[in-house]
Specification:
Radius of gyration: 50 Å
Number of strands: 34
Distance between the termini: 83 Å
């Protein structure tokens, strides 16, 4: 057989299975599997909990007449829209009320004992018969017990009331039967939990005293109380009061709506409505408002069921031809609605062979009957589940198309089967986590999203982006931001031009998502009430008509055009803002990396050293100068050089050297540096003189060395001798005849000069003349010297000695270099007057430069001092270099820009839809408004216009065609409450599916209550079909089990999810509030983001009521607890509280009691409107949150039925009947509060048993434990600085001005919160934290964590930093955690001794005020866009149709036209030359890489020295490595 043929057969077989699944799911939606396979919508007047849920309008004839008028006029709005108090009344026969009381009194213990004994026998029989089938045993037992109670108790009671009931038009056999059934059900409910418990004991072979056990819960007083309550409605004679009671009951029950039932059909003693229409009820003082829906439904399932049973009984064939649709659209039958109803009723009359036709024109009671069927024109007001008709129609369409061989649908379903059954899902969990881990910190913190996101939410977005990641599960514990996540995913899809459908079965969940979308978009709109193009299908008051109103369309177009004009700038702004913030974060990380705890430790060691010894310098003065360490080093070097060059130490006495003798130098003659600098100038002159002599005389200069010595006095003597020698010398004979004179002159010459060489002077006259000229030239230079430079030494002698000895010249040159040193001293020593004084340096005494304390310090001590200065300045600089980054506001700016972009995309899609399909848009507006049958072929146009569509899970199928992959993404919220039966058809419509829910919260209530035996029958059929057509492999049969209607869509996806994650960040309340759920349900995995800034006893409260022990009139109520809670509500009103309030109780009767009591109070409107009061049970509070939640636990020591509500032991979840729901009640109910949980109890804590007792005691232990923690007024004994920080704060102007609005908490344990974000995190011991909460004049709350780094105190306790106790001051992950907290509204202010400055009070004040003030204002671009929008709205600007540019009105002026204004702008007409501007290319700054010391490998620091900038080692002075700058 070919592969194609095999594939075709396989597909065909797969479709057989799909059909079976569709039929199974459809039957469940129509019947609930609650009472065999009977249709679920039947007429009921009381619920199992004895709540009024139905009202026969025969009781109020005048109102019944108006109802029929409305029906016959297709529910025109002007016929019935209000019900006034006291207008519609009925007379109740007094004997009925007396008779009910009398009959109740007749019930006796003997009768009850007999009932219980018979029931015990039946329970034992069931346990014996179904030893291994608990569900079957329970079902059979409950039916048997119900039959006993009905026969022995209910029937005798009702029989005695028939006559009075007939007087109320309620005495026909069907009404009586309904009454019997409902009262039986209410009484059976008292026994249901106990029977379940007994059966489990019996099946585990334990002995049980069954009658005794049953009597515990079936006491005579409770029976009488329930009967009395059941007949309460008959005592009410006002329609207003009864409907108002039903409205209260609607708030008590979950997912219920009001319906008007008209015309009923009875079969087998059960009544079903034939037609029904939903309506809403509103209350205005003594007036109820009524608004009918625009669709009437036909109870098709009931009619089909009765037809089938009737045919079986009568052995005939056929069906009702007219009932092919479930929905009648009133807008399409305004003129023939009565005729249509008549035709349907006529067919029913004919088919069931009724004795007459019902005349719809007559409202009086009419009954048409045959042997098996009765039809009447009775009308009822009823509460019932929200309608599933659209989903049932969807399944009918699926079955119809598959049977007709629709290949597209068949292929889509086969693909689903492949995904669910045959394929192994590709997992992305690890890949997504690894990608996240590899990201840089700045990339984790800066991303493109219009709303803030946390780590898990960003990873969810990453998963959805993956091509093969089709099915994503997000587990969302209470308060972890599921709605926020949905909104983020929506926005992300819109930015990518994708289409998204969001579904939920809870209207409130969709409301929250819609509100979040609207709030985000309106943040960047000019009008906070702007009608955004977000489509909500199926919701009352659908927004589609509002979106397409002329005002809204014009506003959307104006917004679109304004952003379009600036779109390029918008894109650039987003990119630049993103890059800037990333760079700022990177700069902060790099700045933190510069801080080295080892250096801080070293600094404190040095401080300890100087603490007792003191500093040799004025340390504050020195630290104030940024280059003081280098300057001190230079001072010391110069001083030592001066001492070395100017002073010779010998025998501890000062002795001038030969050089200084030549210069006649006396150190103490110099008063100051200026004097010495003049002297140095003179030395410079001498050096220049030598140079000039050498230059002029060259080698002849050595002639002067013939003299041993030569001084100033010798020059004239030499001159005299030369003259005498010349005088004696004859021009012809020379000295021939002058021997004696010459000899005498020579002797005198030798006597006058100490010659170093033996020679006769008269023979060297030429040389003597040269010597004379040399010295004379030197004198000439001297004579040119400024008179202010006085030479007080033998000038020529110095010249002679310098020529004679090169060392003198070297010394001379060395001394000249002192000029730069002295200039340096003269410039810089003046910066340190106090230090000079300490070091005994006197700028007016040059001698002190050679003799001071700085010179006397040892090298080791000096290096220690320089190291201290260096470290102190570096660390202070490092801390001050940390950027002041307003991360939250900068990120908010990016979010706003992205929101503008997103709104532009949404606006653009609607504008395009409006421009292309205006007539279709208007037609759809009328169709949706009127709730006419939606033309699904037009949906694709609607989808293109609205990338974001929200709908109820029960409504969407009415609008959205059954087409595969019509949406890029389908999101299902509160998925644990959505049955696979409800969600299955939508999977076909999605390319990808995102499921959000929580297995630890409630599942679908209806599926949980479905009868096991009926469900098992369907599952067996499904399994057989699967084995025949799909596979008999064991692993695939296990997967098949997920097709059970009791499976939520969340559980269904577990086998096939490509990515599965849990939201971890908890936002709703404080850690103490969620601690129970976190510990017992989520393994302490939740990370609480809300930091408690108030005392624990304002968060957890226990009020113990002294109960009087009296039996309540109604079981499971506690009047004293109700009255206490009401008194607390009144206290909140007295202080005009704006906190929202919820009341949660385990029992419906207590909920009803509270609702009734509060409804009678004059303050009720304040409670419901201002306090947003909602009264709930543990079963109906899922999805709700309130600031304050009161828990009325009802139980007293004498009467406690909590065991039936909560599980005994959390471990027995699978052992106890309804164990899962009983456990879920705890998690759901105890996680609703945001600010305060207030437990109201009527017995001591130790008297509460089971899991609820453990939970209550747990919260009490948390309360007591938190009280024992360090008091808010205490400070850390380890931290000497903490009281000082508090003292600084209390002296700030900020505190003084705002103390009434400030909460300041020392000892705030930030580390506990940070450890939640990272289990490996350990809060540094040196950090002391304070929490500052300030509420400004706009009531905005500013939360600032002030973190003091108490390094000194910490390092006192540590001998040394080593690899075991060393850590970085701030790592990348620390910065990430801090920014995460900042993004949730917590700003950080980090102070320590290095950044607090000289005026800590002012510094702290300024920094707090700067944080509160904020630094990032509204984005200029957004402001410009808003101006453009306003210009378009008021006519100051408009779009030129030619160039499509937005121009000012003046740009359209044209004097050549009659009006003075043209249609085209002057630029298009060529009146104004346009210039193209070239954008300059963006230049990038090159940042040099880190320099490393060539000696020790440490980091280098850019320093400024005497000779300019250079890189110096950070370990200076211990390492003196340098690099050129």
């Amino acid at each position: 057989m070919s592969s194609k043929v095999e594939e075709k057969i396989e597909n065909k077989n797969g479709l057989a299975f799909i059909k079976e699944v569709a039929k199974y799911f459809m039957d469940f939606l129509e019947t609930d599997f609650h009472k065999r396979k009977n249709p679920k919508r039947s007429i009921q007047l009381r619920s199992n909990n004895n709540l009024l849920i139905g009202l026969n309008l025969n009781k109020y004839p005048s109102f019944n007449n108006i109802i029929w008028k409305a029906i016959n006029h297709a529910f025109e709005k002007n016929i019935l829209n209000t019900i006034q108090k006291g207008v519609y009344r009925t007379n109740i026969p007094k004997n009925l009320l007396d008779l009910v009381k009398l009959q109740s009194e007749k019930i006796n213990n003997k009768q009850i004992t007999r009932i219980l004994e018979q029931s015990a026998d039946e329970i034992e029989k069931s346990a014996a018969l179904y030893k291994k089938e608990y569900d079957q045993a329970l079902s059979v037992s409950l039916e048997a017990v119900a039959k006993i109670i009905k026969t022995d108790l209910v029937l005798p009671f009702i029989n005695n009331l028939e006559k009075p009931l007939e007087n109320l038009n309620l005495g026909d056999e069907n009404n009586i039967y309904l009454m019997e059934e409902e009262l039986t059900s209410i009484l059976c409910l008292l026994l249901e939990n106990k029977i379940s418990e007994i059966l489990k004991l019996l099946l585990s072979k334990e002995k049980v005293d069954i009658p005794k056990q049953l009597k515990e819960v079936f006491e005579i007083q409770d029976i009488k109380s329930n009967i009395s309550s059941f007949f309460e409605s008959f005592q009410v004679g006002d329609l207003f009061a009864e409907i108002y009671e039903m409205e209260r009951n609607r708030t008590i029950l979950d997912k219920q709506e009001f319906y008007l039932y008209f015309c009923d059909i009875s079969f087998n003693k059960t009544k079903y409505p034939i037609f029904y229409i939903p309506f809403s009820v509103g209350k205005q003082s003594d007036l109820l408002t009524i608004e009918f829906d625009s669709q009437v439904y036909i109870n098709k399932k009931a009619l089909e069921y009765i037809t089938q049973e009737y045919n079986r009984e009568k052995d005939k064939k056929g069906n009702l031809k007219m009932i092919t649709e479930r929905i009648i659209y009133l807008a399409q039958h305004q003129n023939n609605f009565q005729e249509l109803i008549n035709e349907i009723l006529s067919e029913i009359t004919n088919f069931f062979e009724l004795d007459k036709n019902i005349d719809l024109s007559k409202p009086e009671p009419q009954v048409a009957k045959s042997f098996l069927v009765r039809v009447s024109n009775n009308c009822y007001i009823a509460l019932f589940d929200k309608s599933d008709e659209a989903l049932v129609n969807d399944y009918e369409e699926i079955l119809k198309l598959l049977s007709a061989g629709d290949s597209v649908l068949a292929e889509a379903f086969n693909n689903l089967i492949d995904d669910f059954i045959h394929k192994e899902p590709k997992k992305f969990d690890l890949e997504i986590q690894e990608e996240w881990n590899e990201q840089e910190t700045q990339d984790k913190l800066v991303f493109q999203s219009p709303i803030p996101l946390n780590e898990e939410q960003l990873q969810i977005l990453s998963a959805i982006k993956k091509d093969d990641c089709k099915y994503v599960i997000v587990q969302g514990p209470p308060g972890t931001g599921k709605s926020h996540t949905i909104t983020a995913v929506l926005f992300n899809a819109i930015l990518k031009n994708q289409s998204v459908l969001v579904l939920s079965d809870k209207k409130e969940a969709l409301d929250v998502v819609e509100d979040k979308i609207t709030e985000t978009m309106n943040n960047v709109r000019t009008d906070e009430n702007f009608q955004n193009p977000v489509l909500r299908l199926g919701k009352t008051g659908n927004a589609y008509a509002k979106i397409l109103s002329p005002i809204s369309i014009k506003a959307i177009i104006n917004n679109y055009l304004a952003v379009k004009k600036n779109y390029q700038d918008l894109e650039q702004n987003i990119n630049k803002s993103e890059n800037s913030l990333k760079e700022d974060i990177e700069a902060e990380i790099l700045a933190y990396e510069e801080i080295d705890l080892k250096e801080i430790h070293e600094l404190f060691d040095l401080e300890s050293y100087y603490q007792n010894r003191g500093f040799p310098v004025d340390i504050d003065e020195v630290l104030d100068q940024p280059e003081s360490a280098i300057e001190l080093e230079e001072f010391r070097k110069i001083f030592l050089s001066l001492k070395d060059k100017l002073i010779i130490d010998s025998d501890e006495k000062e002795k001038e050297s030969h050089f200084f003798e030549l210069l006649n130098f006396r150190l103490d003659e110099f008063k100051n540096i200026s004097n010495f600098q003049k002297y140095l100038w003179l030395l410079n002159f001498l050096s220049n003189t030598i140079s000039k002599l050498k230059e002029r005389y060259g080698t002849d200069l050595s002639l002067i060395l013939k003299f041993e010595k030569f001084g100033d006095n010798n020059l004239e003597v030499l001159k005299g001798f030369i003259e005498n020698y010349e005088k004696e010398k004859n021009w012809l004979f020379g000295y021939l005849f002058k021997k004696a004179k010459i000899e005498k002159l020579n002797n005198e010459f030798k006597k006058s000069f100490n010659l170093s060489l033996p020679f006769e002077p008269h023979q060297s006259l030429a040389e003597l003349k040269n010597i004379f000229n040399i010295f004379s030239f030197a004198n000439e230079l001297k004579n040119k010297l400024d008179t202010k430079y006085k030479i007080n030494f033998d000038y020529l002698n110095f010249i002679h000695e310098t020529i004679k000895d090169e060392k003198v010249l070297t010394l001379l040159n060395d001394l000249q270099k002192l000029g730069d040193d002295l200039k340096f001293l003269n410039t810089n020593l003046r910066k340190y007057p106090n230090t000079n004084k300490k070091l005994k340096i006197d700028l007016s005494s040059f001698k002190t430069f050679c003799d001071n304390e700085l010179i006397k310090i040892s090298n080791l001590d000096f290096d220690r001092l320089v190291r201290y200065i260096n470290l102190k300045q570096k660390i202070e600089k490092d801390f001050n270099n940390i950027p002041t980054l307003n991360y939250a506001e900068q990120k908010k700016n990016i979010e706003d820009l992205l929101t503008v972009k997103m709104t532009h995309i949404m606006d653009g899609r609607l504008v395009e839809f409006w421009n292309q399909y205006q007539s279709t848009a208007i037609a759809l507006k009328r169709i949706i408004q009127s709730k006419m049958k939606f033309p699904q072929n037009e949906f694709l146009k609607l989808k293109e216009a609205f990338p974001c569509i929200l709908a109820g899970i029960r409504d969407y199928a009415e609008y959205i065609p059954l087409e595969p992959e019509i949406f890029d993404l389908v999101i299902i919220d509160e998925a644990s409450q959505v049955s696979i039966a409800q969600a299955f058809p939508v999977l076909l419509r999605a390319k990808k599916v995102l499921i959000l829910g929580d297995k630890k919260q409630f599942s679908n209530v209806k599926t949980a209550q479905a009868r096991t035996d009926i469900n098992r029958e369907y599952l067996n059929n499904l399994r057989d079909c699967f084995i025949r057509n799909v596979s008999n492999e064991p692993t695939k049969l296990v997967k098949l089990e997920k097709f059970n209607i009791k499976t939520s869509i969340l559980e269904f996806f577990e086998f096939i999810s490509n990515y599965n994650t849990q939201l971890l960040k908890y936002f709703r309340g404080y850690k103490e509030i969620i601690s129970y759920s976190n510990k017992y349900f989520y393994q302490d995995s939740l990370q609480v983001m809300k930091i408690r800034g108030k005392p624990i006893d304002e968060v957890l409260k226990f009020s113990f009521i002294k109960h009087d022990g009296k039996k309540e009139l109604l079981q499971n109520t506690n009047t004293l607890e109700a009255e206490f809670i009401i008194s607390e509500l009144k206290k909140l009103k007295d202080i005009d509280s704006n906190q929202s309030v919820g009341i949660i109780t385990p029992h419906t009767n207590q909920q009803k009691l509270l609702v009734e009591k509060i409804s009678k109070l004059p303050e009720k409107d304040y409670f419901y409107d201002k306090l947003k009061l909602k009264i709930m049970t543990f079963d109906t509070c899922q999805g709700e949150e309130r600031d304050i939640v009161f828990y009325s636990m009802v139980a007293t020591e004498e009467d406690d039925h909590l065991w039936g509500v909560f599980i005994k032991n959390l471990e027995d979840i699978d052992k106890e009947e309804e164990g899962r729901i009983k456990v879920q009640r705890l998690n759901v109910g105890l996680s609703r509060a945001k600010e305060c949980m207030h437990f109201v109890l009527s017995k001591p804590l130790d008297k509460y048993s089971g899991s609820i007792g453990e939970a209550l005691r747990y919260y009490y232990s948390v309360l007591e434990g938190a009280k024992k923690e360090r008091s808010v007024s205490e400070v850390d004994k380890r931290s000497e600085m903490e009281p000082e920080v508090m003292n600084w704060f209390y002296q700030t102007e900020f505190w003084k001005k705002n103390k009434e609005n400030i909460t300041f908490i020392p000892q705030f344990e930030l580390g506990k919160y940070l450890k939640q974000l990272d289990r490996t995190y350990n809060h540094p011991a040196y950090k002391v934290d304070f929490l500052l909460v300030y509420k400004d004049e706009t009531h905005r709350e500013h939360k600032i964590i002030i973190e003091y780094d108490g390094f000194r105190e910490h390092f006192k306790e540590i001998d040394e930093i080593n690899e075991f106790n060393y850590q970085d001051y701030m790592r990348d992950e620390d910065v990430y955690r801090e920014k995460v907290l900042e993004s949730y509204g917590y700003r950080f202010l980090r102070i320590n001794k290095f950044n607090i400055g000289n005026d800590p009070i002012k510094t702290l004040n300024d920094r707090i005020e700067n944080l509160i003030k904020g630094s990032v204002g509204k984005n200029n671009l957004i402001s410009h866009i808003h101006q453009t929008i306003e210009g378009l709205q008021n006519g100051e600007m408009k779009e030129c149709p030619k160039c499509k540019e937005i121009r000012n009105a003046d740009d359209f002026k044209d004097s050549s036209l009659i009006s003075g204004y043209g249609r085209f702008c002057k630029f298009c007409k060529g009146y104004v030359p346009t210039r193209k501007f070239e954008r300059k290319p963006k230049t990038t700054t090159i940042i040099s890489s880190d320099k490393i010391c060539p000696r020790c490998g440490s980091k280098m620091i850019l320093r400024s020295g005497r000779y300019g900038k250079f890189y110096g080692c950070s370990k200076f002075p211990y390492c003196r490595g340098t690099r050129p700058y």
